[in-house]
Amino acid sequence: AKYFTPTILALGIMVYALTGDPLRLASVFVIACPCALVLATPTAIAASIGNSARKGILIRNGESLEKLSNVDSLVLDKTGTITRGRLQVVDVVGFGGHSESEIMKFAATAEKLSEHPVAQAIISKAKEMGIEIEDAKCFKVNPGLGVQVECEGVNIIVGNDRMLKNHSISLNREGESYLERRARIGTTVFVVQGNSVIGAIALSDTLRENAKDALRKSKSNGVTKTVMLTGDNELVAKSIGEQIGVDEVQFDLMPSDKVDYVTELQAQGHHVAMVGDGINDAPALASSDVGIAMGLKGTDVAIETAGIVLATDDLCRIPKLFRISRATMRIIKTNIAIAMTVNVLGIAFSTYGILPPLLASVVHESNALVGLLNSLRLLRVD
Ligand code: ADP
Ligand code: MG
Question: What atom of ligand 1 comes closest to residue 230's alpha carbon?
C-alpha cells in the first residue's frame, strides 16, 4: 500500500495532465483499486483452513499453511505419535527374589505423579492387581529417562537403562539378559530401590495402523526425508522404523537432543515439519518450522505450541495437509498473477481511453470475483 497508492495517484494525475480527460482519470482509479490483489491471499487461506477443519485439521495461523508448502523433511516422534501411546504392561519380573506385586507397588508409587504413557500403563496395571499406591516425596522427572522419588527414606527410581547409567547404577546380569530379550519388542523400564535394580517392567505399544501409509503418501507430496525421533532404545526404535518404512531413525534422545536434531536439519537448509504429542517433544515442536500436534491424546503444551493441531488420530491427515498447503500456494500465486495482469492492462487501456469508467468497474469487480472463485476451489482439495 505504501508504494502502490502514491504510484497510482501519481499515474492518474499524470494521465489527466497529459490528456485532460477526467473520464480516463476515473477509469485509472477504478481499475487500479487493488481489491483482487488484496483478496488473493486471505481468501485462499480461509478456504483452506475451512477445508482442513472439515477434515479434523485445525490450522491456527495462515503462516503455518504457507510454510508447510516448503517443507521437505518430516520428523515424527515415536511414542504417542507413530505409536498410539497407549502402553500396556506385558511383563513384570522381580530380580533376586522380589515378587511381581512388590515391583509393581514400588513402580506405581514412583510413577503416581507422572503423566508419561509409561506411568499411566504402570498405574493402571497396579490398580488392576489391587495394589495400594502410596504417596511418595521428592518426585522428580528426568524427561526421556524416567522418574525418581523418595519413599520411607529410600530412593526409588523407575527408568530406562540410560537413567540407571546417569545415576551410576549398574545393571545386574539378570537385568541385562532381560533387556536383551525384551528390547526389540518394546519399551523396558527398571525399578531401582536404593542402589540396586530389583526388577523390570516390559511394556508394549501398538503402531497406529496408517503410520506407514502416511509416510509413503507424504513422500509423494513433496517430502524428501522422513525421520523418527525417540527417547527409547536402539532396538525398539529400529524395529519400529523398519515396520513403518521411515528413512532415518534417531534413538536414545533426550528432549533437548530432539531440539538439537531439528535445528541441525534446519542449519543444513531443510525445512522441517515436526509431529508430536508434547510429552518430551514440545521443545522440538516449537523449534521446527511447522509444529503439528496430535490433538486427541496430546498435551496442552503441544496444542499451544504447534501451529497445526490434528483433532483426529489419523496420521494420513498429514499428507493431506501437504497437499492442501501446496495447492493453497499455487492458488495464491495464480490469484496474484491474474490480479496484477488485469490491473496493468486495465491501467494501460484506461490511459489510452479505450476503457470507459463503467466498463472499468465491471472488469474490476469481475477480477475480484475470479480470484474469489479460484480460491473456493481449495474447498475441494482432498
Ligand atoms: P519418545 O521419544 O519415544 O516419545 P520419551 O522421550 O517420552 O519417548 O521417553 C523415552 C524413554 O524414557 C521411554 O521409552 C522410557 O524408557 C523412559 N521414560 C520416560 N518417562 C518415563 C517414566 N515416567 N517412567 C519410566 N520411564 C520413562
Ligand atoms: Mg513422545
Answer: 2
Question: From ligand 1's centre to the CA of 219, what distance in Å?
Answer: 28
Determine the Cα–Cα distance for residues 335 and 370; give it in Å rounded to an integer.
Answer: 8
**Residue written as grid cell 492387581:** 129
Please give the Cα distance from 117 to 278 (Å, whole number): 12
Say how far apart CA 366 and CA 364 lie, in whole Å: 5
Could you tell me how far CA 234 lies from the centroid of its own chain?
Answer: 23
Kindly list the protein residues that place their beta carbon closer than 5 angstroms to ligand 2, a single-atom ion.
77, 79-80, 279
Q: How far is the CA of 279 from the centre of ligand 1 (A)?
A: 9
- What is the average pLDDT across 275-284? 91
Residues 74, 226 contacting (CB under 8 angstroms):
yes
Q: Detail the DSSP E strand segments found in 88-145.
A: 88-94, 137-142
Give the CA radius of gyration of the chain: 29
- What is residue 210's DSSP assignment? T
Separation CA 227–CA 249 (nearest Å): 6
Q: Cα separation of 321 and 66, whole Å?
A: 11
- Block residue for cell numbers 500500500: 1
- pTM across the whole model: 0.87
pLDDT tens digits for range 166-222: 999 998 888 888 888 887 788 999 999 998 999 999 999 889 989 999 999 999 999
